[in-house]
Design goal:
mainly alpha
């Protein structure tokens, strides 16, 4: 099995590194985890 197919069969891992102080990126990422935009499904 090639690495591309193997990666597509599993859930992606995302690492978020906050480099700013406004927390806007944190809010946007948390919005993706709400029931309306559930990225875990």
């Amino acid at each position: 099995m090639n690495i591309t197919l193997k990666a597509l069969l599993k859930s992606p891992w995302v690492f978020h590194l906050s480099t700013g102080s406004c927390n806007n990126c944190d809010i946007e990422i948390l919005d993706c985890l709400t029931p309306r935009y559930d990225i875990e499904r």
